[in-house]
Structures are given as structure tokens and as C-alpha cells.
Amino acid sequence: MKKLLIFTIGGLMMSAACCAQKKQIGEARTILKSGKNIEQAEKLMTDLLKDKANEDNARIYDIWLQAVEKQYLAINEKMYVKQKVDTTKFFDLAKRMFVVAERLDSVDAKPDKNGKVNPEYRKANAAKMSMYRPNIYYGGAHHLKKGDFKTAFGFFEMYLDCDRQPLFTGYDLMYKDPKMGEVAYWATYCGYRLNDPLLVLRHAATAQRDEQKLEYTLQYMAEAWQKLEDDSMCIATLWQGFKKYPKSSYFFPRLMDTYNRRGDYLMADSVVNEALKTDTLNELYLFAKSMVMLNLKKYGECLKFSEQLIQLNPNLADIYYNGGLACLNIAQRMDTRKYKKQVKKMYEKALPYMEKYREMAPGEVDKWAPALYRIYFNLNMGKQFDEIDKILRK
Fold first, then answer.
1. How far apart are CA 65 and CA 168, in angstroms?
2. CA 192 to CA 198: how far, in whole Å?
3. What is the pLDDT of residues 273-299, one digit of tens each?
């Protein structure tokens, strides 16, 4: 008797719940037909979905989707006749449509009791959502323009995510939608502006399809890998950027800095040699080459490239220092007893370089003073030597 009573009460409760559900669904349909107070129809469905018993009811999601779509279309109609509208709300509704459509599809595509999958709503909804999809991109652009990079990223990611959604099975969006690369770039850019390396890298592979912005994509990627302290990936990205854009002011200097900082001057030399192939008269490349030769202790080569650059541009102070230092190191390598005259000639050659450097960079005392001290001492220039001696004593 007790069991029968429990089953009866349970049955009555289920019956009451079903009646309430039917009532709210019927109410929502009536509202949708009237075209007024559509927000209430949406609320009725979201209230129903708070009950776990309804979470697999495709009809509820379908009506919810219709309610959101009708709100979206109402604003769209006003925009069409050039009435003032809440643009942010319009794009938010567009995004919400996709959220609901994808949730509906996941419920609709669940296997039936026989294990068969036969989604009822997919074909129609996929076609409809595909038509609305450009406004997901424009929603991202809208928030990007406002400087709301986090919200913009969400829109751009939703646009890209359609490719992996079962709802769009057969559409092959990743390869058939020519806008994927551009949208991925803007998502990558938002990640960069949010200072989030993981967001930068999330869609970076797709972003590289956008050739027009590829240089920037690779820059954002390099900085993201650097923040994640992944040196190998950072260097690989810098090389990728350098080979594609050898004249970029970003990739070449950073590759050189990386290898010079590590003391890997042979790799630094390989970078600058690649750069010089593209422009043999580039001042930055020639200066970098003179520095690498100095670091590799190839002083004759350093002097050669320093002189070449001085001929091109006599207004670069540091190249005089490189040239002077190369001469000093050549002199220091020589056997003074055997090659006294040649040693003196190298000090004489170093002199105008270092004096010119002093003239152009008077504040760099720590660099030119010790060098001039050696030059004046070895050339027996007493007056000048005394002056430098006083400077160094200070």
C-alpha cells in the first residue's frame, strides 16, 4: 500500500511538472506569434531549463532559439530602415543565437533508444546560422573598436569555433571560408592586447593564413613564446619572420640580440650573412657584421666592414669605435719585437677612429678613454696622454 501511495504521489508530481512545462511552452509560442514581449518567451524557456529534467528537451531549446532570433530580427529591421538601435545588444543577440543553436544541436544529436542519431533541427539551423554568422565577426569588430578586447576575442573565437561544431558538419569552414585567417588574426591581436600569451597562440596557426597581417602575427607569436619562456619556439618564430621579412625592423635585431646575449656569435654571423644577401648596403646589417666580426675576434674583417660603413654614412659614432678597437686588437696580437713598425702603424690607424668617436660620443668616457690611453702611450703622445691619464684618474 505504501509503495502504491509513493508511486501515485510521484506520478502526480511528474504529471504536474509536465502540465507546467506544456503551459509555459504554449505561453511562449503564443508570445512568439504575437511578436510582442519576446523577451518573456525567452525567459519562460530559460526558467524551464533550470530544471534538470528539461535539459534534454529539444523543443525547449528550439523555442528559446526562436525567441532570441525574433529579438535579433526586430533590431535588424530597425537598422535596415536606419532607426537608432542598441548595436551592442544586436551583436549580443547574434552571439546568443549561436550559443542556443549549438546547445540545441548537441541535444538534438543524442542517440535515440536504438542508438541511432538523426538530428531533426540541424539542417535548417545550420543554414540559418550560416547566414547570420558574418554578424559574429562584425560583433567582434564592434567591440574591438571600443577597446573591449576580451569581449571582442569571444566573438572572434565563436566565429572560428563554428568549424568544429557538429552543427556545421559538411560546411568545412576552415578551408572554404576565406575569412578564417583574418578573423584568427584579430583574435590573436586581442590576445596580444590582453597581454595573454596563451590567447595569442590559440588561433595563431590559422591567423598565419592572412598574408597581409602575417608580419604582425609572427611578432605577437614571438613575444608570446618569450613570455612563456619557451626560447626554442621564440627563436623558431623569429627565424620564420626574418626569412619572410628580412628587412623588418623587428625580427633581425631580436635574432641578433638573442645570439649575442648567448655568446653564440657564429649563429649571429649566419643571421647577418642572410640579411646582407638581401641588401649589401644596409647600414644596420653592416654595423651588425662589424660587431659580429669583433666578437669573433676577426679584427681584419671588422675593420673592413667598419670602413665600408663609414664610407656610406660618416655620422654613426659607434662604427668609429669598432674600427678603432679592431686596429688596437690587431696591434696587440702582433709581436712588438718582430713587427715594431707594423704595430706602430696600427696604433696610428686606430688614432683617428678613436678621436672621432670621442668627438661624436663625449659621454662614452668608459669606452674611448682606455682606448686613447693605450694609443697615446704607444705613440709617445705625452701631452694627450697626460690629459687622458687625468680623466681616467677621476
1. 16
2. 9
3. 999 999 999 999 999 999 999 999 999
